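Ticket opened by: R.M.
Priority: normal
Category: complex prediction / small molecule

The reporter submitted a protein together with HDE and asked that the result be attached to this ticket for the collaborator who will pick it up next week. Submitted input follows.
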Amino acid sequence: MAKKPASLKVNPAAQMDEGTVQRGPGGETHQIAKGDVPVLTTAQGIPVFDDQNALKIGPRGPVLLEDFALREKIFHFDHERIPERVVHARGFGAHGFFEMTDDTLAKLSTADVFQRPGEQTPAFVRFSTVAGNKGSPDVARDVRGFAVKIYSQQGNWDIVGNNIPVFFIQDAIKFPDLIHAAKQEPDRGFPQAQTAHDNFWDFISLSPESMHMAMWIMSDRTLPRSFRFMEGFGVHTFRLIDAAGKTTFVKFHWKPKLGLQSVVWNEAVKLNGADPDYHRRDLWDAITTGNFPEWEFGVQLFDEEFINSFDFDVLDATKLIPEELVPIKIVGRLVLNRVVDNFFAETEQVAFSTGNVPPGIGFTNDPLLQGRNFSYLDTQLKRLGSTNFTHLPINAPKCPFHTFQQDGHMAMVNPKGRANYEPNSWGPEIGGPRESPTLGYKPAQEHISGDKLQARGELFADHYSQAIQFYASQTPFEQVHIKDALVFELSKVETPAIRTRMVSHLLNIDDALAQQVADGLGLPEMPAPATPARAIIKDLPASKALSIIANGPKSFKGRKLGILVTDGVDMALLAALQEAVTTAGGVFELIAPKVGGVVCSDGMLIPAKQKVNGGPSVLYDAVAVIPSAEGAALLAQEATAKDFVNDAFAHAKFIAYGPDATALFEKANLTADMDGGFVALKKLADAKAFIKLCGELRFWAREAKVHSV
Ligand code: HDE
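Result attached by the on-call engineer:
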């Protein structure tokens, strides 16, 4: 039997408010009251009688074509998907604001958004991975997109950057090749969301210009602990243009207030199984609990004189400008304080473009940037299906705008009135907008002449110098991670010649590294170094800014402690830990044998967040193990509880333990006094000391002892 709605109340599509009157069958009126459940309607606003059964002749009879509600519902569902982004398909977005904290840029650029320190301009940020498809796991080894849309009063400004300051290639013409090689191989359709396969390393090893980036992607930069702990970079050199038309060259930077942090590879592998949504959940949780992530906005400013003195071409996106050479000046901040209302409408449909710049910001002739400016409009038409994608609320400017553009699919804001062209003689009232020599966008003036040719700047041919500098700037732990990553990825490459070719490039970067990778691969013979296209500069000074460990946090703020508990847990100790972590600005989760919770030593029932097999220690920055003696004996029988402590140990995490944890540790072959990464919680004050120590994030010294191959 079909169910009939009790009464006709509110049409959600029409977004009626309390007090609105809606007509029911027969024309009777219904006053909308607070708390009324809205009546389901079709997209045409027609109230639905039965959403459980299609219209039939008799309960077992044929379905009637006349059922317009059924037809519309299925029609709409069938067309729910739009093409995913060809790169950066998997992403997660959030709203916030951009704000200048000083007036440095106001003097160098006419951009309105720079003019008033302290004023908040709405912003939307979408973080992403590059290679994986939309449903791929979050902690894939990959570059992260860091795309920022700033809704300025002079139109939208997009900084479509990454979490790595350089790129694989120098010229846009190579982008399709790079992406084809990185994504799943076309015949078999795998592997996705990873570069550990032949096609990728074949392309990279045949493209020496990618060597600097290759070092970055083999570093921990491609395994961020969360979006909140990574830097962002505009990558290309842009221009700031002042009222007189003068250019100051600029590189844009985002620096996370919480410091940098990455996960280790084995942790990433396990995280992707334990929580494929690890990064998006982290951002969602942080914002919805009021821990708003924040980045400092920094600029490197330079002029022609610096450009002429620099060893590299500032138009080459495979090079960076070390902070030690041109310091980053912090001039603003970006805060994310609101999650999306709807993932599809905002995160999926947001459309970025490097070509979106307001007056006062300009492009350079970086051939990658120029290619990008061309590409992004194209892709929106394919994905969003209409030139009117700017009519979607997430893409629409938040300042007044007036164009003569009209019609097309889904046109929602066609110009009003008679004038849809200019010049016209309809007068100021109805004649529509006009260009403005004073307010309109003016590109920087530049005299250009030259031969028509297909070539690159001379300095673009230096492929190794900054790769050497990057490697030399890493801490010894990070250097080992780079070596391990290279060995891992190249071990997945099935063609020996590709492995050897990569090692021939590594020989131009660091002999010891090349040797370690060759050993790790079991390479039968060391190849000759690849022939460099230009003399390599081997003694560029190390840059501390390029290391993650050297730029970590100073406290446990923003981090998460996992507390493994059982019935009988010492309530006072648990409370001390919770207080210490909360005071430090961190959060905690209880992991217990049952998610319903545990009965503490004082008889109180405390609910758990995770059941022990659903809350592995990879989800946490540090762990505390404080079961009762009986509980520890129980956990000692549970494989996932042993994994909990074994993984925390193997991932060099700080581990606090209560007096009764021994049974579990013994079963996991761990002794609590093994190294300085263990902290005994003997008295309540130890909890505070433990959380302070956790500010160092990992007990790195342990790492070398747990990995020998
Ligand atoms: Fe992109 N890139 N890209 N890219 N890119 C896209 O635009 C492209 C490049 C970056 O969250 C696409 O809307 C070309 C560098 C981010 O929506 C597409 C070239 C950098 C995002 C496209 C590059 C980026 C994209 C796919 C070489 C770092 C995600 C869907 C000339 C500085 C934005 C879309 C988001 C997205 C093309 C190179 C960053 C196809 C042709 C270098 C963060 O238009």
